[in-house]
């Protein structure tokens, strides 16, 4: 199965969040075709989580992008981690979603 480009996936994710009544914004545009996508979840209670692409072996068993929890902490620690990731990969995408229920609306790897 063909993989969706990063820009197409992010666009669909943002539209679905808006349709579901959630606030989601694109904070950083990465490489159009294959930039890694990171998602910051703000629970609006002073806590946040950062999701990163799952390892390639687990990421697309059925063609769907999969994510793994990278960090669950306070928003400042999340921002520090994002800054470190950007130094490593300047082509990454960063999407931020607000959801009080803590649901990032992502396909997650188990374990």
TrEMBL record:
This is DUF1491 family protein. It comes from Bosea robiniae. InterPro entries: DUF1491.
């Amino acid at each position: 199965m063909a993989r969706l480009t990063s820009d197409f996936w992010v666009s669909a994710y943002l539209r679905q969040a808006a349709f579901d009544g959630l606030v989601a914004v694109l904070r950083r545009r990465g490489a159009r075709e294959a930039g890694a996508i990171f998602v910051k979840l703000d629970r609006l209670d002073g806590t946040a989580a950062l999701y990163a692409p799952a390892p390639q072996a687990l990421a697309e068993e059925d063609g769907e992008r999969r994510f793994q929890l990278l960090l669950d902490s306070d928003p400042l620690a999340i921002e520090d981690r994002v800054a470190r990731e950007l130094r490593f990969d300047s082509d990454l995408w960063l999407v931020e979603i607000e959801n009080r229920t803590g649901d990032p609306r992502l396909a997650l790897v188990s374990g």
